[in-house]
Amino acid sequence: MKTRSGRTLIVPSAEDAAINHGIDADPDTYEVSAEDIEAMTPLKNRGGRPKLANPKEPVTIRYDVEVLAAFRASGDGWQTRMNDALKNWLRTHRP
Fold first, then answer.
1. pTM above 0.70?
2. Cβ-contact 19, 11 below 8 angstroms
């Protein structure tokens, strides 16, 4: 079975007695059947963060040192505040 990351999972077969015996002996676990694994596969499409209506795009850009220093000095969330400042500027200016 392939995972979303491309890894291949090998599900223990019925013939793999050593693994099955270890699972049976451990009171805190159980063997996941092939049916259970199949029932879980639809969940792989729902994992991770939900998609944003307006996703942000990563870019590489250069700013003056004093501009970055001022925003960074304002603490955590400085990149969001910088984005908000640029959006506010766009409301009154044309690039």
1. no
2. no
